[in-house]
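ok new one. same drill as before - structure tokens go in, u give me an amino acid for every spot. 317 of them this time. try not to just spam alanines like last time pls lmao
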């Protein structure tokens, strides 16, 4: 008999599925080959996917169909550079956790993350964690970043686990929604989850004294139930983000304020906002109407995409 449910944990080869009826959980494998718009995937099924399956024994099952996704978040696989990796599906919003210090903020990472969500118009909130460690200069950095992203429609809040700062605000953001929680290693995702949902008691790690980078504490993507309402999809810490699935125009169209201005460019949507004449984005940059930081991050991503795609093409010969 066919059953339906939601994937709540992915370990690579096994998927835990919570059934719609009875709320039971089955440990499932997949049968057949699943693809996403002809994109090669390292994991054809993601946490958050709605699936159909057949029971095999008391606690096992076999997934044979993935139901239509209303959205998904995808990134380049960190291990298989020519493939993509699904982070989550069917989410209401995403929360990216960063910090100004310990580890040091990498502003470009925020814009790279937003490239993954903009295509499906997924709302994003940027959480600056470890605010108790910020000195006056760090607080100035936070205020600057908040202004940059508030102006283009992204929510920004600061949190501190030791001081319990911003935790109620974060809970209100998460309440009654399915949220993808992501961020670089070491920014304190697990500590934040433990602070708003203590009974989960997720394992936390320390920052490496040698590298200054975080240690992975989340091994697999997993959907967590929040007792105040809502679901949280926790994912392993991200070290880098690449985009072998994008070309330069995909990138240009995914910077929302640039895309809005592009209708006024001489070359419209074909403008890459570099050295083209009559570029409305370059004019807005000169006038201080758009963020120079965002623009520099944009140019860096364009270069990365072009370099990667060049070697992708060369690989065929």
């Amino acid at each position: 008999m066919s059953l339906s449910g939601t994937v709540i944990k992915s370990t690579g080869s096994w998927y835990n599925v919570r059934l719609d009826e009875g709320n039971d959980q089955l440990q499932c494998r997949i049968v057949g080959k699943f693809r996403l718009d002809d994109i090669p995937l390292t994991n054809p099924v993601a946490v958050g996917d709605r699936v159909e399956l057949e029971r095999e024994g008391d606690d096992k099952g076999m997934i044979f169909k993935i139901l239509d996704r209303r959205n998904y978040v995808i990134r380049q696989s960190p291990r298989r550079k020519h493939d993509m990796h699904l982070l989550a599906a069917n989410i209401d919003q995403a929360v990216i956790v960063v910090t100004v210090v310990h580890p040091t903020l990498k502003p470009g990472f925020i814009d790279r993350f937003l490239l993954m969500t903009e295509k499906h118009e997924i709302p994003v909130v940027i959480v600056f964690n470890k605010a108790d460690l910020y000195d006056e200069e760090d607080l100035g950095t936070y205020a600057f970043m908040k202004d940059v992203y508030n102006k283009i429609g992204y929510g920004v809040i600061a949190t501190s686990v030791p001081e319990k700062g911003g935790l109620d605000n974060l809970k209100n953001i998460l309440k009654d929604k399915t949220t993808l929680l992501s961020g670089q290693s070491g920014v304190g995702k697990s500590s934040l989850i433990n602070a708003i949902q203590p009974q989960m008691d997720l394992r936390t790690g320390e920052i490496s004294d040698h590298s200054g980078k975080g240690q992975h504490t989340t091994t697999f993507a997993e959907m967590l139930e929040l007792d105040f309402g809502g679901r949280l999809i926790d994912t392993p810490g991200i070290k880098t983000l690449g985009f072998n699935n994008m070309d330069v125009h995909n990138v240009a169209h995914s910077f929302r304020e640039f895309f809005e201005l592009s209708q006024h460019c001489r070359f419209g949507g074909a403008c890459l906002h570099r050295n083209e004449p009559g570029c409305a984005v370059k004019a807005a940059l000169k006038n201080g109407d758009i963020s120079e930081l965002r623009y520099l991050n944009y140019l860096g991503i364009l270069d990365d995409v072009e370099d990667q795609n060049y070697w992708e093409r060369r690989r065929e010969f």
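The CA atoms of residues 115 and 240 lie 13 Å apart. and btw The helical segments are 107-118, 136-151, 167-174, 189-196, 248-254, 256-262, 280-286, 292-314.
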